[in-house]
Amino acid sequence: MSETDTQDDSQVPPLKDASTVMVVRDGDAGPEIFLQRRAVAMEFAAGMTVFAGGGVDPSDGVAEIAWAGPAPAWWAEKFAISESRAKALVCAAVRETFEECGVLLAGPTADTVVSDSARYREARGKLERRELSLATFLAEEDLVLRADLLRPWANWITPIIEPRRYDTYFFVAVLPSGQRADGATSEADEVRWHTPAAALDRWRAGADVLLPPTWTQLDLLTRFASTAEIFAADPVITPIMPVFTQIDGLDALDFPDNHRYLADLPDRTRLRGSSRPS
């Protein structure tokens, strides 16, 4: 019996928009991706290995900000959503990437990017504590949001059976020259760069816990030989909402390529127990 057979609409937890950003760089063995292990003390997704990201804040996208790159209308078309939601998601992507790994996708002009994001460490902390909005930060520092440093990638929706649910839009961004991704956030216990293949090997060995959306993106990224190829990709974005069902007599998630995920799934990995959007 699937989750849709056991839960009516009145019982389904509401969705919250979220942005997840896959920060990539070129390495000796090919493209590498920045991953963080969620702090064990976190209220949800404790111990999960994820990309940078989180829920859209009410302040995201509501104020006028200096903007370079594809306009909200372009993002709205790519994600098949309204312009207002698209703007908020892009702003959340920039804010969360800065908060969670210190990578700032903004610059003094429309065609430059800050080379040393560490100089904004104080503002980063205020953003994470919600003492400062992204719009105010950018205005005070006279910075332009670089939407052109992001690309749309995927859309995953948390299963209806979970208590926390997100409508998560995935982005990809190449690490700007001169900047360094770090683990200076209260939300992560450990951070590292891995090739997608190495990250999947760690998962198969039981070293990391990957939820289906994270596994799927890493699996897709193994097909690219450089960050330039990743950034040039133009994936068709179709919303995916995994469904809990019976597979070979066991409760499991049904989603594209789930047979491959389940075949390599370490015993200790939890199929349920987290609603983290990435």
UniProtKB/TrEMBL annotation:
Names of required cofactors: Mg(2+); Mn(2+)
Cleavable signal peptide: none
InterPro entries in UniProt: NUDIX_hydrolase-like_dom_sf (IPR015797), NUDIX_hydrolase_dom (IPR000086), NUDT19 (IPR039121)
Entry annotated with the keyword Transmembrane helix: no
CDD domains, alphabetized: NUDIX_AcylCoAdiphos_Nudt19
SUPFAM superfamilies: Nudix
PANTHER family on file: ACYL-COENZYME A DIPHOSPHATASE NUDT19, TESTOSTERONE-REGULATED PROTEIN RP2
This protein's name: NUDIX hydrolase
Organism (species): Nocardia aurea
The organism's taxonomic lineage, starting at the top: Bacteria, Bacillati, Actinomycetota, Actinomycetes, Mycobacteriales
